[in-house]
Every structure is written in structure tokens, then in C-alpha cells.
Amino acid sequence: MDIQEKWKHFDLLDAKSRKASPIQNLPPRPSKSNSLGKEVNIRLNTFHVLEYPSKPVHQYDVTVFGQSDIKRMVIEKVWKSKAVQDKLDRSWIFDGNKLAWSLNRLPNDQIVINVDLDMEEGRQRSSGRNTFKIAIKFVGDIDFSTLRGYLTGKCAFDVSILETMSFLDHLLREAPSRKYTQIKKSFFARGQNRFSLGGGVEAFKGVFASARLVHSGMSTGPCLSINVDVANGTFFTEMDLIDMIRELTRCRTREDVITAFQRAKQGDWHKSPMYKALKALTHVTVHKKTMPPVNGVFKEFKIHRFQNKDAYERTFNLQTRDANGEVTSSITTTIAEYFRNRWGINCARGLPLVELTKKGELVPVEALHIPQNQRYKVKLDDKQTSQMIKFAVTLPDERWAAVNHGVAMLDWQTDPYLKNYGLKISPNPAEVKGRILPTPEPTFAVGKIDARTASTGRWRIDGKKFLTNNTRPLKSWGVAIVNSGRGACINQGQAENFFTQFCKIYRTHGGQIEGMPHMQVVNLVRGGEMITDIWNSTGNKFQAKPQIIFFVVPDRNAEAYMRIKKSCECRYGVVSQVMQSAHVQKAQDQYISNVCMKVNAKLGGTTSMAVGCLPKVDKTFATVPTMIIGADVSHAAPGVMDQGSMAAITCSMDAKFTKYNALCDTNGNRVEIISTQNIQRLLKKMVEQWMNNFRGRVPDRVIYYRDGVSAGQYAHVLDQEVADMKAMFRVINPAAQPKFTVIICAKRHHIRFFPQQGDRNKNPLPGTLVETGCTHPFEFDFYLAAHSAIKGTARPVHYHVILNECGFSSELIQQLTFEHCFQYARSTTPVSMFPAVYYAHLASNRAKAHDNKPAVSSGKKETAERRDREQQGGSTALSTSDKDIAEIPPLMPMNNSLGIENTMWYI
């Protein structure tokens, strides 16, 4: 395997990371830092490495022979066995799979050890089933001189640096993994303060640690650094298994659990909601009566599955043996009788049995217990997610205290493995010089927000006229007041009051309105037909197809919302605006102004543009026809197999980059790189519309902001997506050769800023830029906090320039990125990420409503139908155990007869 297949940039912390590689010859770090704005001192949650191992470190290949398919858990048991550990010294580090390291060289460079796990664990031999051989073979030495040479610019990256980083990663986590519960790069201690999320799930905080190669920002230049942050983990709450089953199935009493179990048994047990809920449980401990703890620790067993029989329905032969082990008697008994007579545990009828992986043993739920720190891997429901956000959000001071607590947990100063190998980490965090970039002024057709006000991260638009208003006066428009079965969610007077105010305020913002809308009560139970009702009645009243339809809904019913959007956009091609009745009843001016911004954008207008110092940075920038493209690919939640990945592409439509069209479609199953078909079909449409707006010419430059790709996929973005875009331009115009600048955006990282001078919550001020301390040692990347955090600690966005054919300076890219965050169409605050990407996120989420599946009549009826299926033991999703996942179909296309594709329909 060559370097291009093994390396995932410079953050190698798991086996998957070794399958990708950096791209050679990416744009280099700028020769000088940004000088715009003012300087600010910033503390980072990174800790630089002071000393590297000086002793030779020997690397070994580890192979375990035995069963045909040996699981990783068994490999670890073999490695930790007494037979193996007696042959090795304490300096050995094992990655849990194939590699090991030691300061000592084995005699003859290899060793083979026989391991009998039955004998190790005090069990009777199982005819060789648990007998293994482990072969440990020397494969080479870790060469730290190459890493030092790379950091000092004396040699290029090669495989030896990959191997060194992989070793250092395992060295860093060896000691913590022995003390704490490890989840990838995070560690969680027992006994921490826990926060209930409901449904038998709890959250608590741990520590995240990751090794990175960075530019230190000091005279020492590039170095190795450890990024330490708070980790928020979700776990099952420690309790008896029967109580956990009650929590997972949302039953109030044990009797309700029995009723639910009996109902599930009547259908297909393995497809029932109850079985699916219980599948999340993986480990249990046996009741202390049957297996007392050893040294205060209960032995854990792995759950194979839950059976659809109870303890009274399963029988077995109970044998009695004499002192010589000979069978003296055998009787048939139920599991319930055995546990009552042998252990004094009374089993209730109608509760599922648990089959353990250990010899297929069947145990009643009353005899089992859920241990502490068992990870919860299932997607949180809406209520749990809301609780998790409350738990995870912390202000900067509190977060920094948690980082310090994490450093104390890692305890580098006394870590025996770090000390033994000679790795020394600074206990002090990195401190760097950042910049606060000049704040632009959000500018309207009439009026503007001064830079001082804008720099606070919040402003009002009272009396401001939008930069451009709706392209056609609003004449044919309707309001659907939804009746969900309890009557209309607002009365006629409330509706008239709100829309009278709406017309007044929209006109003050420059909106063109000819009169009041048509209003009608519609019934949610009619589902898609309620959209037909309001479409027809509005069109008939105004003798013109509706330009927009408002829906006033009683609550946040996601299914009803998706139904509305799907019918409006795919069936009728009309934009819509959904509002909750509580907001309509209050009719507050600020809320109405916010609605006006969205409506204006959907009707072809734009809110404002950011006017800053960009012309001073590059006087010619605005004179060259330039297109900005944003893209994102979103994926279904873990475990959801019948929902495809969603590709969303946005494209600027004007010279000021205030209006973006967006199109979406499915992109295979968990495929991150946008397909050639999607680029040709989606982007080509928008490019042709851009050309119509620019007198038929092709852009000279394209700035492509791409979100959501890991460093190992940078090459794929260039070799596939950008190559496909260039090919598309050649199809449109064979002479077209626009230059590309490609910038990757990422928010899923653990870097945080703790500035000396921040806002009132001690968060960084909008425009805070960091170019050292946590950035790549040699490539062109930076971190930018463009927004003012509403809650918690601000998360800066990481931007990495992977192609710069346009030759833009770092100051231009950074200032452009920052200023555009102030012209997000539906907000009176700067947004955290470049708008083209933010819009792609919005479009991707909205386009989920265009899923090409048979629709149901209404959100309410859909919920009822699904509940009926579940009660009958049915399934709401494809099961991979039953059949292969069908090819993901494309989305239902939008009806473009009214030109909806040329609007910001997704805003």
C-alpha cells in the first residue's frame, strides 16, 4: 500500500485514517500573516510537544491464528492473556488489531505463543475452540529523525512519518485507555456528574485528545501539538435490565412492558419496534446473587439477542453431577423454575429472555443489570437532542475549566508510557497572535448598519429598505390557516391583524404588495389536498397562479411541514412560508421583519450587501466576472440505510453575491464526493442562469467553497468534482477555461479560541482570525470566528485552500470570507460559515421533503398509520437483515413552470 492510500492528512488516530493521503503541492502557507484589523492575544486548547522519543522504537506485526473469523475483542483477549504478557515486558503498546511497539528487540525478531482462553479464564476446555496462536514479528524501527526533518523543512513527507504519527497516537492513549472508558479519541471516567436525557439515556463529559502537526506560531516553527477539548458522551443509565426495557419502550410500568412484549410477539418479532429498541443494548452484568463481583468489579457479558419467549416457555435439562463429574440425574425444568429454586429470583411471565454470546446461555431479564458507561449509539430523539444541547452548551470560562480537567485526567506528567518512551508535552496551552478583521457595513437600498454596531454581531433593520425588492408586485397570494382537528389554530381577526401588519412592514422595507391575501381554513387531515384547496381558491380569487402561499400551523409537526413543502415545490412549483400560530398571534414587528426577509428572498429580492475594505485589499476583484459555488453532501443518521446521501449545490446569481440559486439530489448511499451526473445536471442549470444574468458570458473565475470533506478526500474533490466542473464549462463553451480557487470549510473540529479581549461572554469577537498555533505547518489554512455566539463557546470555522489558480492573496480570501458572512439573506447577524455553504445546508435539509416515495395524506394520519404498523409488529424502514438496500432513487423534481429554481426557495 503506497502513501496515497494510507495517509489521512496529519491527524492519524484510527485505522480508517490510514487509508487516505495528503495531496502533494497544495497551496503553501502565505509568506506573511494577515495585517488587516487589529492584533489580539488568543489562548488555544492545544498543547505543544516539547521532547520526542530518543530511544529506538521497534515496530511489530501481530497475527492471531485460530478461528476462521477472529473478532477484534478476541484478539485483545489473546494479547492481554497471561501467556502473552509473561513473555513481554511492560513497555509494549498494542493497537488492538495488527501493530505493536516496544523499546526492546525480540530474540530472533519474532515469537509465537500458544494461548488457551478457556484455561486463562478458569473454564473447562471447549475442544480447542478457544485455543489460539499469536505470532509477533519485527517489521522495522520508528524513525523520529524523518519527522524532525519534515517539521524543519529538510525532507518531504513519506511513509516513515505516517508510521511515526501512528505510533505517537497509540502512545498518547495507552495509559488513558487503561483507566477510562474509551470512545475513539475520547475518554470518560466513571463517577462523573451525569445528566439524564430521558429514555434510559444519560450524558456526561469526558476529554478529547488528538495529535496534530501544526505551525507553532513561534520562532520554533512547525511542531507536534495535542488538541484537548471537552467530549460529550451518551450512555445508558446504570439500572436493572427490566427497568431499562421499560425506559427504552417508553412504558410506564412493568405490566405495560409485558403488554408491549405480547403485542410484539404476535407479529414479526425481529421487525418490531420493541426488538429494535432493545438491540441498542450490548452488555450486561449478571445479578450479584449468581455471580458476585471480583475485586469490586462485576464481569460483563455480551448480549447476542433478545428472544421472543419468556422464562416459562423455555426448558432445559438440569443435570446433577457427583464429585467425579459423572451425571447422576437429569430433569427437565423451565428457566423460571431454575432461577427461583437456585438463586431465589422470581421471574414474571411475559418478559423476553436474553441470549448471551457465551455459549448461547439464556437468562431472564430480572437477573441482569446494565453496567455504568455502556455507550448509547442510537440517534437521539427530538426531546433527547434538546436536552443534550442544554447539557453540552457551556460558556468559555466553563469550557476552559473542563479542558483543564481533561488535561488533569490525561495526566501527561506521570504517564508511565510517555515517560518510558521519552515524549514530553507542555502543560501550558499555546498562545498566539490573532487578528480581528475590519467589520463591513451591511448596506441596504436605503440605510446601512455602521461598522461599530455590526461588530457587536447583532443589528436591527427598522426603516431599512431591502437592497432589491420582489421582482413582481405581490398580487396573487394566499394564507392557509391549518385546522389540525381542534379547530383553526388562529381566528380570522388574528389572521387579518398579522397580515395587515405584514403588508405595512414589508412596504417599509421596499416590498411591492397590491393588496391583502386570500385567507382560508384548511384541514390537516386532507394532507396534500389541503394544498390543492388553497392553491385553487387563491388562483380563482386573483385569476392568476399564486406567487406565494403562507401556512399558519399550530405546532412543529415535521411531517406536516414536509408535506406542505413537497406539494408546493414539486407539485405546484410555488414558494411557501410556514409560520407557527403563536408567533402570528403576537404579531411582533421584529418577527414580521424576519419573515419579510425570507419572503423577499423567495420572491426574487435580496436583503443587503456587505461593504467593507475588500476594494482596498484588491481593487480589481469586482471588475472580473466571478462566480461563487457552495456545496455540501449530507448523510442519513447512523443505522438509517434506506435514506440516501443528499448533494446540495448553490451558485451565486449576481455580481454582489447576495443571491444564490440552489439545487439538490440524492448522491448514492453515504457517498461524499458529488457525482458527475449531479454536477452536470444541477450545476449546469445554474451556470446557464448565471450566464443569462451576465449577458451570456462564462465567468473568468470560480470560487468553490466545499463543506464536509475530510483531509483525505481533498484529492477526490480536485480530481473529480473540480474536474467535472471544468468539463461542464467546456461543454457550455469549448473556449471557456475559468480559473478555480477551492476552499474547504469544516466545523467538525475541536479547536476553540479563548481571547484576552472578547465579548461579554468572553467569546471571540466577530472577525477573529487565527493563522498559527493550530493550523497546518506548511499549507494554506486558517480558522475564522465570523459570528457572535448566541450560546456556549463559539466554534470557529476551519478554511483550507486546496487550489488557488486565481492567485488570490490570503488577505483577500480571508476578508472576502468574513465580509460575506454579513450578507446572509435571512438574518440580522453575521453567520458562522460562508453563506454559499450555509445555503447548501439549508437546501439539503429542505430537499429531504422531495423524497421520491409515496406520500401519505397528512402528518397526523401518517403518524397513526405508522403506529398501527408498529403495533402489528411491522417495520417503518428497510431492514438489512431481510433484503439488500434498493438503489437510492433521485428526488422528485421541482415544478419549474413558475421559475422556482431561480429563487431562494430554500431560505
UniProtKB/TrEMBL annotation:
Residues 849-886 are annotated as: Disordered. CDD domains: Piwi_ago-like. Keywords: Initiation factor, Protein biosynthesis. Residues 548-852 form the Piwi domain. InterPro entries: ArgoL1, ArgoL2, Argonaute_Mid_dom, Argonaute_N, PAZ_dom, PAZ_dom_sf, Piwi, Piwi_ago-like. Residues 849-871 have a biased composition (Basic and acidic residues). Coiled coil: none annotated. The keyword Repeat does not apply. GO terms for molecular function: RNA binding; translation initiation factor activity. It holds the Pfam family ArgoL2. PANTHER family: EUKARYOTIC TRANSLATION INITIATION FACTOR 2C. This is Eukaryotic translation initiation factor 2C 3. It comes from Tothia fuscella.
